Amino acid sequence: MAPFSKYNRNSKTMASQKITTSKAKPLPPGVYTPVITIYDNTPTQQVDLDAMYKHCQYLVNAGCHGLVYLGTNGELAMLNHQERIDIVKMARKAVTDLGIPDYPILAGISAQSVAETIQLAKEAGEAGAAWGLLLPPSYWTKAINPKVLEGYYRDVADASPIPIVIYNYPGVVSGVDLDSDIICALASHPNIVAAKLTCGQVGKAIRVTSRYGPQHMAVYAGSADYLVPSLVGGASGCVVGMGNVFPKTVSRLYDYYKAGRLNEAAALQEKISVAEAACKKSLNSTKWGAWYYILRNLGIESDAGFAMRKPYLSPGEEQKKSALAAFSILEDIEKSMQGREGIFKA
Is 248 a catalytic residue? Predict the structure, then answer.
C-alpha cells in the first residue's frame, strides 16, 4: 500500500465524472450470506465447527454468491481471536473441499483500535478470508468525527493484507453513521473496495454508485427487503441474514433481476420482505430458523446450539412460533428451487 498521506481525504475535490477504474481485487457482485455462528450444547458454548462446516457447504450448494463470517449475524463481538481464526479456516476448507478454493469469503475484522483491527485483518487473511468487513469505531462516540472515521479506515487499509469492505450499521455501533461523503472520500483508497449499507438508506447507496463503478467502489444492501430497489439504484448485491434460512430464495431474487425477469423479481421481493421481518426482530429467530429449515435435515437433531451466546437468552416458544409464522411464506418456494445450475446442486 502507498503511504497514508498520498490519498485524497476531501470528497469535494473528487472529479464529478463517474470513476470506473478497477481496483486490484474488487468484491464480486451477488448475494452474500452473513453466516451464523453455531455453538455446542455445553455451559461454555464452544463453537461447533463441524455443524458450521455442513452449513457452509449447504449455503454454497444452494447458490449463495459469497459468504461472510464474523459479522453481526456471526456474533463477532462474542468471539475471541482463536475462535475467529478457526471459523475462517473451517470455511476456506469447506469450499476447497467442494472444489472451489477461490469462492468469495469475507471475514469481520472489527475492533476499536487501529492496532487490533490490523492484527485481526492479518489473522483473517492468513486463515483464508479474501476481504475484511469493517465497522467504524464506537467506544467513545463524543470523540468520533469524520476525520477520526476516515483516519481509522485509511490506517487499517494501509496495513491490511486483504481489501476492506466498509460496514455501516449504526444500530450496533452506538449510532455512528457513515454518510455518503465519508464513503466517497474513502473510495479513493486502493485497498477499500466496497461498502455494506445496513443503515437501509437507499439514497445513500445511489449517491455512491452515481460516482463510482462497482469495480472501483461497490455498494451492497444490508438486507434483502430492499434488494431490488438497491439494484435499481446501482448496487452490486446484498449481504442478508435470511440467507442462513432461505439461501436459494434470496439468491434467486438477485438472479431474477439480473436476468431481466422483473415481474418475478418484484413478486419474490414482496414475499421476502414479509419473511425477513422475523430476522429483523432477533438474531435468535434467524439462528433457530437456520436449524429448523436446514441444519436439522443435515443431522443436527438438537436446536440447543442455535441460541445466541450468553448473556443473551435462548429463544422461547412464542418467539419460535412467531418466526415460523413469518418464514412460512417462503417455505414452499425454497423447497421448489434447485441449486445453482451447472455448478452446484442442493
Answer: no
